[in-house]
């Protein structure tokens, strides 16, 4: 049985993962309308990944005798001025998510819930990968600058990059 504090923290994380999925879906849609086909495919996949992160939490809460709350979501940003702006937003968002996951892990230790602590380690590892990937993407974009040929190649190559920690990159 989950302690109330843990259930609350996990439900908060469910909302964060759902919001991540929604934000990346909006980013994917924007990229698609800008003719950035590779970037949009990458972001659609990333959005699906976040939904999977949310589902894993929903099922964990229910399995442990809690009640998962499916949250209401607000409308994410619809327009970006550039790819660097978009990916910087994504990186900042992932840094925020990592902080929230660390808080959750800390609550598990305070409450001596070692099962949830163990479950959360997957998310800790995932965040390291996602932050590293977002930083690599930002480095690439900073190198490319406004070079059109470089941006074309970036958009072509990013489609093949996987955000899933288990599939590798
Ligand atoms: Fe962005 O990764 Fe979920 O947790």
Please provide a written account of the structure.
It is a single chain. This protein has 169 residues and is mostly helical. Helix content is 75%, strand content 0%. The protein has a single domain, classed as Ferritin (Up-down Bundle).
Q: Which molecules are bound besides the chains?
A: hydroxy diiron-OXO moiety
**In DSSP terms, counting alpha (H) and pi (I) runs of 4 or more, how many helices?**
5
Strand count, sense and barrel status of the largest sheet are: none
- Radius of gyration from CA coordinates: 17 Å
Q: What low-confidence regions span 5 or more consecutive residues with pLDDT below 50?
A: none
Structural class by SSE content: mainly alpha
Domain tally: 1
Overall mean pLDDT: 95
Overall 3D shape: elongated
CATH topology, what is it called? Answer: Ferritin
CATH-assigned homologous superfamily: Ferritin, core subunit, four-helix bundle
Instruction: Indicate the percent of residues in helices.
Output: over 70%
Distance between the termini: 37 Å
User: How many beta-strand segments?
Assistant: 0
User: What's the CATH C level?
Assistant: Mainly Alpha
What string gives the helices and strands in order?
HHHHH
Strand content: under 5%
User: In the CATH hierarchy, what is the architecture at level 2?
Assistant: Up-down Bundle
What's the arrangement of secondary structure elements?
Elements lengths: L3 H30 L3 H27 L19 H28 L3 H31 L3 H11 L11
Bound molecules: hydroxy diiron-OXO moiety.
């Amino acid at each position: 049985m989950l302690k109330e504090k843990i259930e609350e923290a996990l439900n908060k994380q469910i909302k964060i993962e759902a919001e991540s999925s929604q934000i990346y879906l909006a980013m994917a849609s924007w990229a698609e309308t800008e003719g950035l086909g590779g970037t949009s495919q990458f972001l659609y996949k990333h959005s699906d990944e976040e939904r999977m992160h949310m589902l894993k939490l929903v099922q964990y809460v229910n399995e442990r005798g809690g009640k998962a709350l499916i949250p209401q979501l607000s409308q994410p940003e619809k327009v970006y001025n550039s790819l660097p702006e978009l990916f910087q937003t994504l990186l900042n968002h992932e840094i925020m998510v990592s902080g929230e996951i660390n808080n959750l892990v800390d609550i598990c230790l305070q409450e001596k819930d070692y099962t949830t602590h163990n479950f959360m380690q997957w998310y800790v590892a995932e965040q390291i990968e996602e932050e590293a990937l977002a930083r690599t993407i930002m480095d690439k974009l900073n190198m490319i600058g406004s070079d059109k040929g470089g941006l074309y190649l970036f958009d072509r190559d990013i489609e093949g990059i996987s955000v899933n920690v288990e599939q590798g990159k």
